[in-house]
Design a protein that fits this description.
- This protein has about 375 residues and is an alpha/beta fold.
- The chain folds into two domains: about 150 residues, NAD(P)-binding Rossmann-like Domain (Rossmann fold), CATH 3.40.50.720; about 190 residues, Dihydrodipicolinate Reductase, domain 2, CATH 3.30.360.10.
- About 35% of the residues lie in helices and about 20% in strands.
- It is built from twelve helices and 14 strands.
- A hairpin with a 2-residue loop joins strand 10 and strand 11.
- The two termini are about 40 Å apart.
Length: about 375
C-alpha cells in the first residue's frame, strides 16, 4: 500500500514546461507529482506568454526568479544553480515535444512527456538513443495505466488464468467533439491543426491510451500487421481524423481491434479494453476504473474490486486506501509519478530497477503505431506490415 512515506531519499527538484492557466492537463501533472513528496516544484516556464506564465508560477508558490519566459532559458539558468532542477515535465502542444525533450536530455534532465513523444518514428528513435546515452529516464503520461486493476489484469494474464490469448478489443470513443467545438476552444483548436497536432488527431490523442493498456497487460504480444480506416466527420478537421477503426493481427495468431473517436455522441469517455482468452475474458472500463470484470466460460461473471485481499500483491502495492473507497485518475497518475521518481533516482545511482512504467519505449511504440495506421488509411485502408 502507498501511504505517503518516502520512496526516494530526497524529493526530485522538478520543473514544468507548459501546464499553465487554461491547460487541460497541467493540474493533474502537479497533483500527481507532488502527492507523495517524490518531486518538488521549484521552477517552470508555464506559458507561451512570459508575463502570464510568471504570474501563474508565483501563484503556485514558485520563486519569481525561477519562473522563466521559455524552456531554453529555464534549462540554461537552472544548469548554473547548485540546486537546479533534476527533472522536467512537458505539458505543451504536440508539435513542441520533440525539441523540448531533446533539449532537456542534452541538459542532463530526466523527462516526463505528454504523448505523443514526437511525430515520426525516426525522431522517437533518436530520443530513445539520446536517453540511453545520457542515462536519463523518459516517462510518458499514459495515465490510465496507473489504475490498480490494470496491474491485476497483467498478473492474471501472465499466470495463464485466461488461457491462450485470442482477441483484444479496445476503444477510446467519447462524444464531446461531435461538433466543431474547436472554433470556440483554443485548447482543442490546436489538436486538429496538423502543424501542431501532427499526422493524426484521435489515433494519437485517444487510441494510444488503450493501445498502451494492451502493452501493459500483454507485454509479449507484438503486432504483425494492421489495417486502418479513418474519417473526418467534422469536415473542417480534414485531413486529421475524428473517427478511426484499426484491425490488428498479432504474432501469436491473435487479433485486435481499436476504435478511436471523439464523435461518439452521448458517450462520456468510452475507453474500454477486453482481452479474450481460450478459458476466460477480462474487461476494464475507465468510467468504472475500480472494477475489473472477469468472465470464465460456463460460470457467472465476477467483478473484481480494487483494494480487496483477493487481488495479487502486485496490484495491492498500488493501493492508497482500503477497498470500498473509490480511487480515480489522480491516484492513477500519482502511481505513475511514483514509479518515475523511483526509476529516476535509481538511474542517478547507476542502477536499474525491476519496475514497469510507460517509458521511452512506450513513447516510441505509440508514435510507431500512429505512423503505421496513417500509412494504411492514406493508402486506401489496406493491410500493411507493421514497421
Amino acid at each position: 500500500m502507498i501511504n505517503g512515506e518516502k520512496k526516494v531519499a530526497e524529493p526530485i527538484r522538478w520543473a514544468m514546461v507548459g501546464g499553465g492557466r487554461g491547460s487541460q492537463i497541467g493540474y493533474i501533472h502537479r497533483s500527481a507529482a507532488l502527492r507523495d513528496h517524490n518531486f518538488q516544484l521549484v521552477a517552470g516556464a508555464f506559458d507561451i506568454d512570459p508575463v502570464r506564465g510568471k504570474e501563474f508560477g508565483i501563484n503556485l508558490h514558485v520563486d519569481p526568479e525561477r519562473c522563466y519566459p521559455d524552456y531554453k532559458t529555464l534549462f540554461e539558468e537552472e544548469a548554473k544553480r547548485e540546486d537546479g532542477i533534476e527533472a522536467v515535465s512537458i505539458a505543451t502542444p504536440n508539435g513542441t515535444h520533440y525539441e523540448i525533450c531533446k533539449a532537456a536530455l542534452h541538459s542532463g534532465l530526466h523527462v516526463v512527456c505528454e504523448k505523443p513523444l514526437c511525430f515520426t518514428t525516426e525522431e522517437a528513435k533518436e530520443l530513445e538513443a539520446l536517453a540511453k546515452e545520457k542515462n536519463r529516464v523518459v516517462g510518458i503520461t499514459y495515465g490510465y495505466s496507473g489504475h490498480q486493476v490494470i496491474e491485476q489484469a497483467r498478473q492474471m494474464i501472465a499466470n495463464g488464468e485466461l488461457g491462450d490469448i485470442r482477441i483484444v478489443n479496445m476503444q477510446f470513443a467519447h462524444g464531446f467533439h461531435s461538433e466543431a467545438v474547436e472554433t470556440a476552444n483554443a485548447s482543442t483548436k490546436w489538436r486538429v491543426d496538423p502543424k501542431v497536432a501532427g499526422p493524426s488527431y484521435v489515433l494519437g490523442d485517444l487510441g494510444t491510451h488503450p493501445l498502451f493498456l494492451s502493452e501493459v497487460m500483454l507485454p509479449d504480444l507484438k503486432i504483425k500487421k494492421l489495417l486502418c480506416t479513418r474519417q473526418s466527420f467534422v469536415k473542417s478537421r480534414a485531413p486529421l481524423e475524428d473517427n478511426s477503426y484499426t484491425i490488428m493481427e498479432y504474432d501469436n495468431g491473435a487479433v485486435g481491434t481499436l476504435w478511436s473517436s471523439c464523435v461518439n455522441a452521448g458517450s462520456m469517455h468510452g475507453q474500454k479494453i477486453r482481452v479474450v482468452g481460450s478459458k476466460a475474458s477480462i474487461e476494464w472500463w475507465d468510467e468504472q476504473p475500480n472494477q475489473l470484470r472477469y468472465e470464465i466460460q460456463g460460470k457467472p461473471a465476477q467483478i473484481l474490486e480494487r483494494g480487496m485481499d483477493y487481488l495479487y500483491p502486485e496490484a495491492l502495492a498500488d493501493d492508497r486506501i482500503g477497498g470500498g473507497h473509490p480511487e480515480g485518475l489522480f491516484e492513477a497518475w500519482s502511481n505513475l509519478y511514483t514509479r518515475f521518481a523511483i526509476a529516476m533516482e535509481a538511474s542517478d545511482r547507476g542502477e536499474t530497477i525491476d519496475v514497469w512504467y510507460p517509458g521511452i519505449e512506450a513513447g516510441v511504440e505509440g508514435v510507431r503505431w500512429v505512423e503505421n495506421c496513417v500509412r494504411s488509411a492514406d493508402n486506401g485502408a489496406v493491410w500493411v506490415e507493421y514497421q
